[in-house]
Amino acid sequence: MSIAGRAGVLLLLGCTPELGDSDGQGSDPPRCPTYNAPEAMATVDEPALDEMSGIVASRKHPDIFWVHNDSGDVARFFAIDVRGQVRGVYRLRGVAAFDWEDLAIGPGPDGTPWLYLGDIGDNRETRAGIVVHALPEPDELSGHLTDPTMVDAESYYMQYPDGAFDAETLLLEPDRSLIIITKSPIGQSGVYRSTYPHDAEELRTLDKIGEIILGIEPIPGDRRATGGDLTPDGRLFALRTNNHVWIWPIGTEERLEEAILRPPCIAPSPHEPQGEALGFDIDPPTYWTISEGVGQSLYRIRVNEG
C-alpha cells in the first residue's frame, strides 16, 4: 500500500450549461464546478479485489469506502480505508451474485445509512429482470477473506419496460428513489427510476425517464457508461466511462431528468486501465475513483461548486 501526498492543482474544466437554472425558476443556469487535479491516495494490492466495479464513501466510518467486485465473485462486499487496506469483508446471506456492477449509499427505509448493491449487469442483454440488494451500513468493521461477516439484505426485483439491457450505474436520489442507467456500445444510455418506497415482495417495472447519448458532442469519448453517483444533497450528478467523467449540476427545484437535458460539465478523469467505480464523498464535495485490476490507485478529486 502506498500513499501519494501531493497537493491538488485547481483545474478550470467544464462548460456552462445552456439551459435551466440553479433554483428552477428560469433565471441563471447552474454553473459548472471547478476541480482540483486527481490525487492518487493509495494503491489497493489485495488480490481478491481484482475487478472493483463500485465504490462509495462510508457515512458511519471516516476514511472508509465500501467496494465490490464485478461478475465472477460471490455475493460479498469489502471495507477499505484511505490507505488501500482491507478493513472488513461481508457476505450476503442466501444471495447469489450474477453480475454486481455498482453500489449506492444513502437513507434507507428507517432513515439511517443503507447500502444498495446493484446486480444489474447483463452483457448479453438476456436477463428477464435485475435486482438491487439493500441493507443497513454495517456499524462495525469486521470479517476476513476466509471468514466474512454474514449480513442480511432486502432484495428489490425490477424489470425494464422496454427490453433487457446491460447496466453499470446505480444512483440513490435524496428521496430514496433508485436510478439505473444502462450501458450501450452505441452510446444510447437509458435512464430509469424505481420510485421510493421499494417493496421486497414486488417485481417492479421501472419508469423510463430519459436518455443520455454518449460518444458524440456534447458528450464525446467512450460510448459506454461504466458508473456514476449523486452527491448526498442531489445537486451534482456524475457519470463516467472508462476514460471520461461528466458532471451535471442539478437545480434546487429540478429533477435528474431535467438536468440531463443540458450539456454536461467536463470533469477530471484519472488515467485508469478500466475505470468503472466512482463515488461522491460528503463534505467537502469530492469524488473517488478506482479501476478494475489488482494494484490500482484510489484517486480523489475535490469539487469546488460553481
Output the structural class.
mainly beta
* Oligomer kind: single chain
Query: What is the domain tally?
Result: 1
Strands, total number: 24
CATH class: Mainly Beta
Fraction in helix: under 10%
| Total count of helical runs of at least 4 residues | 1
* Average of pLDDT: 91
- What are the low-pLDDT stretches, counting only 5+ consecutive residues below 50? 1-10, 16-26
CATH architecture: 5 Propeller
How far is the first residue's CA from the last residue's CA?
Answer: 35 Å
Question: What would you report as the Rg, rounded to the nearest angstrom?
Answer: 18 Å
Strand content: 35-45%
Q: What is the H/E order? A: EEEEEEEEEEEEEEEEEEEEHEEEE
Query: What is the third-level CATH name, the topology?
Result: Tachylectin-2, Chain A
Major sheet characteristics: 6 strands, antiparallel
Judging from the principal axes of the Cα atoms, what is the shape? globular
Report on this structure:
This protein is mostly beta strands. The chain has a single domain, classed as Tachylectin-2, Chain A (5 Propeller). The strands form five sheets. Strands 1, 2, 3, 22, 23 and 24 form a six-stranded antiparallel sheet that branches. It has a five-stranded mixed sheet with strand order 4-5-6-7-11, with no helix packed on it. The protein is globular. It starts with 9 loop residues before the first strand and ends with a strand. The N terminus is likely disordered.
